[in-house]
User: Fold this.
Amino acid sequence: MAVDAARPRPRVVIVGAGFGGINAARGLAGCGVDILLIDRTNHHVFQPLLYQVATAALAPSDIASPVRAMLRRDRATSVIMGEVTGVDTNRRVVTVEDTGEFTYDYLILATGAAYNWFGHEEWSAHATVLKTLSNAETIRQRLLCAFERAESSSDPHEIERLLTFVVVGGGPTGVELAGSIAELARFTLARDFRHIRPQSARVILCEAGSRLLAEFPATLSDYAATALQSLGVEVRLRASVEQIDAAGVQAGGNRIESENAFWCAGTQARPVAAWLGVDAARNGGVKVRPDCSVPGHDEIFVIGDVASLGYRDGRPLPGLAAVAAQQGKYVAKVIAARVNGRRAPRPFHYRNLGTLAMIGRSRAVADLGHIRLRGFPAWLFWSLVHLFLLAGFRNRIVVYVDWSWAWFTYGRGARLIIGEAMLERQKTKLPV
Amino acid sequence: MAVDAARPRPRVVIVGAGFGGINAARGLAGCGVDILLIDRTNHHVFQPLLYQVATAALAPSDIASPVRAMLRRDRATSVIMGEVTGVDTNRRVVTVEDTGEFTYDYLILATGAAYNWFGHEEWSAHATVLKTLSNAETIRQRLLCAFERAESSSDPHEIERLLTFVVVGGGPTGVELAGSIAELARFTLARDFRHIRPQSARVILCEAGSRLLAEFPATLSDYAATALQSLGVEVRLRASVEQIDAAGVQAGGNRIESENAFWCAGTQARPVAAWLGVDAARNGGVKVRPDCSVPGHDEIFVIGDVASLGYRDGRPLPGLAAVAAQQGKYVAKVIAARVNGRRAPRPFHYRNLGTLAMIGRSRAVADLGHIRLRGFPAWLFWSLVHLFLLAGFRNRIVVYVDWSWAWFTYGRGARLIIGEAMLERQKTKLPV
Assistant:
């Protein structure tokens, strides 16, 4: 269709380059709008595989792609790396720290969720979360340094404390991380040390609820617990965390001496509700209308983990990559329809393509609605789906090579301790 | 041969897991000695490809291997990650910071070289060196952040300063880094930005001497200069650096406004001479006897960049990976012969297998003694040799995939800005 040259093209500002933001930007390309995508990093991360970076199975660049490269084809799309600090809905302006203000005609907020400390932010000094590549590298350094320090130590109590790893949260991320740490210790590192026995490391998974993977059918939860136990993971159910400090974790009334706690518990939406001056749902998300727009602001859309949208029996949609990606594509259609004077699409409907969780080598669970898989078939399905969904041909090949190599040798190539900061930290923690 | 069970096995301590230390440890495996290898990191780095990590062409884990995994087969070899702070030659003890003391019967010092600031250590606050994976990640972050900041800036002077990159030192590392930065800007990033033109970035290579690659024949030096210029690199010869600060570099009497300086100038051996209380050569290295042992200390060997050993016309051996690797294998034979009462091998002789330097896509120089290659044949030779020398089957495959992919697409997969610290730095530097 012809574009009225006298009328400037509408500008769509997208905040966040996760699954929601990237899909929205791609969906809007060529629709007669200018697109500005803002993210605090320069890369899109394939979050479902973050735990493999954290446990040295994959390199950070294997699961991440530069945002600019992903969006380079559409000349009307620009990208800014920066931290959004607020939105002025009256002036229709987004503020980026140290950079300036950007006006919008349409705004898509896809900032994603942060972990929820349930009022105990002080625990974040001792327990690492797993949301970003930087988090994953920190966990990798902590894991590998713990084994190195244990090898150098002559104090049996210190060695035990160093080789005790506590994962908090029995959702998919916690289950995957706990299983992968256990495999790292039992298989990959087993032959590398002379003074300690890496396979004696304890991995403890604490879940506040009565079963793991609460979103899955109970039979798969039970299978996951059994599979983790066979890897040597201690699964503790109904074990709410009461305290985390530098020397350990208190959960379900029991104290665990450990220097390595990892936090994969509930999530909380980033402060989008506060930016917009609207009420937040229980998890901090913004309650949106069926077309993902914000009540009172037809031009603002909130998608992904930061949106709260009813689903079937009123439960909000889960915080899954698939939900964010589908919503990103959907709001692109809504905006394109409005800009081009077409009829608005029907309300957003989430097509549930299934939920997957990996437990370890050849073990996974998959809930595909009518079909439920576990064990090797689920693991094979998981591997193929993740390879297929990874962004970029190069990443698919490299991840395939790494997985094949690891499957046959138990080797993990990315076992590097690089950060100077971590070595400093290590030094200060060692007894003098 | 039978080992006398009553006599304890001699212990060989090796400091440094570079090409010298790794080859010494491998050569000593199964020779009836206990081996302890100490390194400040947990990985061996294939240093000739560090510049490709610095320019986002390869991931850190592609060119590094965990030391423990490399040495796991020999049960008499242990590894400690730690910083050696001194040697007591009377008590035959090596001190490791925060860990303790380790006695030795034989000691191999292979700590490698650091960069030489020629008395201007204060420049190290502004110019990044390229010796470790951590250095390479810092350079990658600085390069990528410079383009991101320029894209967000509206000040033409600031943009120019941000997109000016100064490489100091026209040896192989400087030549390779300068060529690779130019290719990153001209090809990889060219289509990714909307406000700046990455291909307008200036890359300036400053060399104090009268030609690049002083170790190579003059015809290859000239070819390298011409090839770099055709990539857009400004080659400045006889341009000694006089000043480096946060806003620029003064070299050969000219001031260059730049926020990104990289230091690849002369090297200096680490303080091994001071540990041993012996005189150092001009570059800080320890003068060793023809069997690489230290005068007055038959049981101590110094190899690689930290050794100073005459060669042909009295010039010391170059600081090459090949020299260190051959010396590592050699001293392993010397020690094995002594321990097992065999005749000592002949004095060390360096087998010069040639010198290579890469300039850019399809361009390199190779000095193989009688044969001198340049252009595509040299580049092909360079690629095959480096693939062959890389440690580990997995790394070879992944690097091969990355190089092939980059050759056809100009893409570079590892373009990630990850460190939080670098973003902080970026913020503080931006005008408020």
